[in-house]
Structure formats: C-alpha cells, structure tokens
Amino acid sequence: MEDAMEAAIEFFNLPNEEKMLWFSDDVHKPIRYGTSLNHAIDQVYCWRDFIKHYSHPLSDWIHLWPSNPPSYREKMGNYAKAIQVLQKQLMEVLFESLGLNPSYLEEEIKQGVQLLAVNCYPACPEPGLTLGIPPHSDFGSLTILLQSRRGLEFKDKSNNWVRVPFVEGALVVQLGDQMEVLSNGLCKSVIHRAIVNEKEKRLSIASLHSFPMDTKVGPAPNLVDEENPKSYSEFSFKEFLDFISNNDISKGRFVDTLKVPKP
Ligand SMILES: O=C(O)CCC(=O)C(=O)O
Ligand SMILES: [Fe+2]
C-alpha cells in the first residue's frame, strides 16, 4: 500500500507535458489521464486529476502503463494483484451473506475487470467552492479504496453527508451498482463524493471491480420470487461506459435508469 501510494505521488509530481502524454476524453481508452469527472461534458470542473488504467489480468495491460516514474509499473502492479485477490475473497463473503453460494459467478469474478483510478486532489485555496469528485456511485461490484488523508464522504439513509474517517493502513470497501442489481436491491450502492482541503493535496487509489465488459448482470435468480419481484433490468459494464460518455452522472445515476417500476 505504501509503495502504491509512493508511485502515485511520483506520477503526479511529473511535469505536465509528461502526464499529458496519457491525456484523453475517451472513456473507452484502457489508460487515460484526465481532470474533473468527464472533462468533455462537465459544466463545472472538479478539483481533481486522475490516471485510470485497466489492471486485470495484469499481463494484458501493464505494458501500457506509464514507464515513468521508473518504479510505477512494479509498485502499482503489485498492489493491483494483491487487491484483485482481496476482492475475490470479499465477493465470496458477500454472496454468502446474501444466502447465495460463495462460488456464485466465480468465473465471471475471476475474469472481471479491474480498473485502477489513481486520483490527485491538489490543495485548493477555496475548498468551499468546489469538490474533488461530485456525488456518484461506482458502476461495478466493489470498490476498494486507499486514501492518503481524509476527504471521502458518503450519503447516509437520511440524506446527510458523513465523513469517512482516515485510518492509517486501512482500506475502504464500497458496494457499487452491480451489487445493487445483483442483490435485487438488498444491497445499495453507496453514493459518495470527495471534498478538497486548503492545506495539503490528497491522493486516493480506487480499485474498481466489475464483471467482464460484455457480461450482463441481473438480479440473482435465488433472490427473486413472488414477494420480491425483479427490481432491476440487466446491464453490462460496456453499457455503463456508453451511458457515461453521453450523460453527466452527477445529474442522474445510471443504476436508477435500470429500476423496474413496481406493478
Ligand atoms: O478519492 C476518493 O476518496 C473517491 C474516489 C472515487 O470515488 C472514485 O474514483 O470513484
Ligand atoms: Fe467513486
């Protein structure tokens, strides 16, 4: 975790020209550097720079990652691999807690997508006027987040923003839209945002896990019956990408477009 954070710090300390080599507005690119949320359509920019890259299976992607700073691939690669193992274990436990077989969708989880979003929120002279990342929920099954200091907030059941404490050496685990759909609404994907601060830049590394690009995820058949009718339609990661390239997700969540009206 320390190595990954170090690699992230070194990357964002590179001169702009070097980071701009990776710049792209195209959300389908396997690696891209950018700012705000979706720079092409955001009306107000957020106080964030990021580099995002696919990470699993590592050998398919690592050669596309930045080769500067020189230790980036090794340090971030080791982190990505360890987190991939952790997410598989967490998914098994989650399925068990839902009364499903722990090995439910085992192959899909093994072959799933891992996208690392490495975020940098510079110190901001007017932190009350902007956000690091606006309210959203993550599209995937699980997000495992490492942060360098406090800044993450989530929305509770009464619609209040709650600060996630910073705990040295701890990871934050969040449920995403695919878990909400798969659990037929028993789990809810968490709405979260990142605020910025005046004093110090903040870094976070979000490992976004999801089922394979073209796999349609729908409510688990064992969680659907007469009393609990199917509440969501199926979707794939690819459909989500198409949605975010055309929509401002701070205005409406993708998962809400999947809700099946109650009879
Ligand atoms: O920086 C954070 O704490 C949150 C990042 C995040 O929500 C994301 O990358 O999806
Ligand atoms: Fe997020």
Automatic annotation (TrEMBL):
InterPro entries: DIOX_N (IPR026992), IPNS-like_FE2OG_OXY (IPR044861), IPNS-like_sf (IPR027443), Oxoglu/Fe-dep_dioxygenase_dom (IPR005123), Plant_2OG-oxidoreductases (IPR050295). Residues 111-211 form the Fe2OG dioxygenase domain. It comes from the Eukaryota. This is Flavanone 3-dioxygenase 3-like. One of its GO terms (molecular function) is dioxygenase activity. Keywords: Dioxygenase, Iron, Metal-binding, Oxidoreductase, Vitamin C. PANTHER family: OXOGLUTARATE/IRON-DEPENDENT DIOXYGENASE. Pfam families: 2OG-FeII_Oxy, DIOX_N. Belongs to the iron/ascorbate-dependent oxidoreductase family.
